[in-house]
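Hmm, what's this shape?
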Amino acid sequence: MLDFIEELILGAAEAWWMPLALFLFSLVDGFFPIVPSESLIVALATISDKNQGFNLSTVFFMGWFGAFVGDQIAYWLGRSIGVTRFRWMRTRSVVRAIGGVKQTLKYSGAMVVITARHIPGGRVAVNFIAGATRMPVIKFMGLDFISAALWAAYSIFIGYFTAGWLEHTVLQIALALVFAAILGWILDRAIKKFMRSRMERTPDQDDPEHQTGLDSNP
């Protein structure tokens, strides 16, 4: 059974439509995170040494450009819709979460945009709110261009690094995906911890004039 699944995987990886599928998966994943684009990149990188029908450069560029376009869609959805249009957006928990992302974007925008791309749900939220809060288009595009490239390279590295640990292709892919999930969880925790620390540092604490409650103008 595993041999049959391995043949299907290797055959699909060599198919002419795989680069297009990777591009579309990465694009859709930029604004609809249920699509597992990271898993596809990791899997392809894992079997790259067993497959001559594609190369890692193709995987990298298709993942990179697809992710970049998808992130732009999330940004412009946020810019068009905003964060108060729907009732669920005005609930206390959502308002608090949005406020935290707004604050981190204001004080650490570059780092948040670049690192959040590695978290499926986090990147959509950050990119959406970046658009809703009117982060300059050129700034966002520049940061995301770098972020998407790092994300594609990171996903390929995980698959390539774990390649050969197990003999069977199916088990090897499963191992690589588990490894990627663990690293993603660690990164997710680190980002959330950083965002919580930024939320605790309000603008009032950074501005002496606000701390005293006085306006500098007479």
Summary: Residues 2-28+38-201 form one domain.
